[in-house]
Structure formats: structure tokens, C-alpha cells
Amino acid sequence: xxPCWLLSTVDARPHSHSxxxxxxxSARIAHVGVAxxxxxxxxxxxxxILGLAPLPQEEADGAMIASLAFGDSHVELLAPKTPDGPIAxxxxxxxxxxxxxxxxxxxxxxxxEACRAQGYQLxxxxxRRGAGGRRVAFVHPKSTxxxxxxxxx
Length: 153
Prior knowledge:
CATH architecture: Roll
Oligomer: single chain
Strand order of the largest sheet: 2-3-4-1-5-8-7-6
Number of domains: 1
Distance between the termini: 23 Å
Helix content: 10-25%
């Protein structure tokens, strides 16, 4: 089954559900979230070696977030702010590395409805405010080949 946010109305393959979302023409990677134990050390590599300019840091969901523009996308560095927050738990369980991939979709509500209709496990049943005040929702990695996916408009 193709991912719910990449379905196209011109897709002629049979589907077990008739609910399709035409977002493939506008869906793109908004950012890749990388969990790091030391934000300043990680920023040093991305800035000093790759030449990426960091945007102002912000705090969200118990993490400090530093975004760096990379073409039309961003790298989002996530460092724990609290020892019991989701990034601290991720680092303790898996160590540093890719935490999530964020896809920008045309219609977040419609995309979530398509996910529900096709049985994808959602962490956020309704959109919430994420970093930068954007509307976001997460799809559980159990439904997406082990990758935590963030959806945003």
C-alpha cells in the first residue's frame, strides 16, 4: 500500500480503501530531525564544515531545536532540554541519529483522514502546534517501516 500522503488521484492501482488524497504533486520533505546529545557540537559541524547558517533556536516538547536551511529543506537538530522528554528518551534508547522525517503536505487534515481510513497508526489524531507554531501531526513508526514521520502544512 502506498504511503497515505503520497497517493495520487491518477493512481490506477487498486486500493482496499477508496479514500485517496491528491498531495503527491505538492508533498515534499520539509526537514529531517536529528537527535543529538550536544546541540553546540552538532551545530559546529553543520555550520563550520557544511556552511549551513542556523536559524534562531527555539524550545518545544522538552527539546532545544536548531534549524539549518539546506536548499528547500532544513536539518532540524534536536537536543534534550529535560531528562524525561521525548528526545532524551530517544537518545537513551537509540543514541544520536535521525529522529524523524517531516513531509510538507497541501492539506494536513485531509492527509490525516486518509491515514486513518487506511489504518495507519497516528500519534496525533488531530494537528497540534509544533516548532515555529506550525500545525503538525506525527505518524507512528510502527505504520511507516520504523520511521517516525511528521506531517505539516
